[in-house]
Write a structure and sequence with these properties.
The radius of gyration is 21 Å and the shape is globular. The longest helix is centred in the middle third of the chain and has 14 residues. The strands form 7 sheets. Strands 2, 3, 4, 6, 8, 11, 12 and 23 form an 8-stranded antiparallel β-sheet that branches. A 5-stranded mixed β-sheet has the order 7-1-24-14-15, with no helix packed on it. A 5-stranded mixed β-sheet has the order 21-20-19-18-22, with helices on one face. The protein has 7 helices and 30 strands. The chain has 3 domains: 274 residues, Sandwich (Thaumatin); 102 residues, Beta-1,3-glucanase, C-terminal domain (Metal Transport, Frataxin, Chain A, 2-Layer Sandwich), CATH 3.30.920; 47 residues, Carbohydrate-binding module superfamily 5/12 (Seminal Fluid Protein  PDC-109 (Domain B)), CATH 2.10.10.20. The two termini are 25 Å apart. It is an alpha+beta fold and 490 residues long.
């Protein structure tokens, strides 16, 4: 699997590529609403006695904005210049809450970021000339390998707050996230069931193919459970775990048709696939060929990369088809269904080589929602909350033992059907600088909503150039400066 360093500009916050559809809270917010400094309460219900440390690291998403951090008062500060080899970043830790306590931090408007939280030790961050080296504890040489830590992801802009928990890379510190709007309604997700952390660990330990993905510290504490792709990269999981299933699923469409309906809001936009050798060939309703997808490897499926990377050729149908196929393989529905995506969770993870990691995490969440993989938002199964006019938010570190049922809150309002992306599914982070492309990426003109953009495409927005990180349909509120998970500033 090809690797690159995931700069903090690329993690930028709210939420893996969503299904294009109707516009909700992102539309019509021409004026800023919500406070310029959004109060966020961080509560520690973990039951652990160590000191905790918080870090808010991200990017100012206004034109010309840079990478930086947020201090305890809510001020965004640009990072100093880094070097090669990477130089230590300044200590920007914010004192976190002790067990049973809480602290308040502030999210400034116009930021996409991660908030890290660690127990017992501060995290080790380094700076290169082109970005921040993030922790990658699945890599043997990472200095944060033996630290218990995790993160939440968010974007706060004039269209509101998106905040989510994520298990795309690992399951370490279960935590809930919530947002309270100007109407007083609080929306909350990410709570585990009672004793949920132990249940996840024990249930994964009972799966022979996944048991080695449980990583313990020197004192025996379970630090994290690695997601399958990260475990495979670390040599802790069979790189051919999915091979037999992929072959069977792929070949099942040799004599029958797979119908892909990639946009929930456009049920008549359909594409039709048949397997021919190692390729699945798709046509549109007129019979014209629109995409060819090569049979993936296990690594391609866990990372939704490789053969699932979308080419930069009109009419940009292939990215949506590939996203749908990868989701189907991760959830195990490809081969048993004649239409994708399958949106009935009762049909997930029942294939011959199930993704027990994602299955077990979802089963141990109070509302069943999690980011078990990068495209878990297909069908709305992700642990995300959003409010277009927020007045406060919270991150709650959940109990490591018994306890953890969420409190009763106000009934949730209808959530938006579209949301900006957060975690990148295509390539995992390493501690090495990104290799620049050897050829100039194709130009795409001026950014506009309701356009299909493909990976590598370059657009101009507010006088600045951006390169597309993930193929997607653009929507109002997803301007390149607002959604750094989709667009790399050049």
């Amino acid at each position: 699997m090809r690797k690159r360093k995931l700069k903090l500009a690329g993690i930028a916050a709210a939420l893996a590529v969503a299904i294009p559809g109707a516009i909700a809270a992102t539309q019509g917010n021409a004026l800023a609403i919500g406070p310029d400094l959004l109060p966020v309460t961080v509560s520690n219900n973990s039951g652990r006695g160590e000191a905790t440390f918080l870090y808010i690291l991200g990017q100012d998403i206004r034109p010309g904005g840079k990478l930086g951090y947020v201090n305890a008062s809510g001020t965004f500060v640009n990072w100093p210049a880094g070097s090669n080899p990477p130089s230590p970043a300044p200590d920007v830790a914010i004192a976190g809450p002790g067990n049973g306590g809480s602290v308040q931090v502030r999210f400034p408007r116009h930021i996409s970021a991660r908030m890290y939280f660690s127990f017992g030790r501060k995290l080790d961050f380094r700076l290169t000339p082109d970005g921040l080296v993030q922790p990658a504890p699945w890599a043997g040489a990472d200095p944060n390998r033996d630290i218990l830590f995790d993160w939440t992801e968010f974007t706060y802009n004039d269209s509101g707050l998106w905040i989510n928990s994520s298990q795309v890379d690992h399951f370490a510190v279960p935590h809930a996230v919530s947002v309270t709007g100007s109407n007083g309604v609080t929306k909350r997700t990410g709570d585990p069931v009672n004793d949920g952390r132990n249940k996840v660990i024990n249930e994964i330990a009972a799966q022979p193919a996944f048991a080695r993905s449980i990583v313990r510290g020197p004192d025996g504490t379970v630090l994290r459970v690695l997601a399958p792709g990260k475990a495979m990269d670390a040599g802790l999981m069979d790189p051919n775990y999915l091979t037999s299933y992929i072959n069977t699923a792929w070949n099942s469409y040799t004599g029958r048709t797979l119908t892909v309906v990639p946009r929930v809001a456009e049920p008549n936009r359909k594409f039709f696939g048949r397997t021919s050798g190692n390729n699945m060939v798709f046509t549109d309703a007129s019979g014209a060929q629109v995409a060819t997808v090569a049979k993936p490897t296990t690594s391609n499926v866990w990372g939704c990369d490789g053969v699932f990377n979308a080419p930069n050729t009109p009419p940009f149908i292939e990215p949506e088809i590939k996203r749908t196929l990868c989701t189907a393989l991760v959830r195990g529905t490809l081969g048993s269904s004649t239409q994708e995506p399958v949106l009935d969770a009762n049909q997930f993870y029942k294939n011959s080589a199930p993704n027990h990691y994602s299955r077990i995490i979802h089963n141990n969440m109070a509302d069943g929602k999690a980011y078990g993989f990068a495209y878990d938002d297909v069908g709305g199964f992700e642990s995300l909350v959003h409010d277009g006019d927020p007045r406060g938010a919270a991150v709650i570190l959940s109990p490591f033992g018994a306890g953890g049922n969420p409190p009763v809150t106000n009934p949730p309002t209808t959530q938006p059907t579209t949301r900006p992306p957060t975690t990148q599914p295509t390539t995992p982070p390493t501690t090495q600088p990104t290799t620049p492309p050897t050829t100039a990426p194709p130009a795409g003109g001026t950014w506009a909503p309701y356009q299909n953009y493909a990976t590598g495409q370059v657009v101009t927005y507010n006088g600045r150039r951006y390169q597309c990180r993930q193929g997607h349909m653009s929507l109002p509120g997803w301007e390149p400066s607002n959604v750094l998970a989709l667009w790399l500033p050049l």
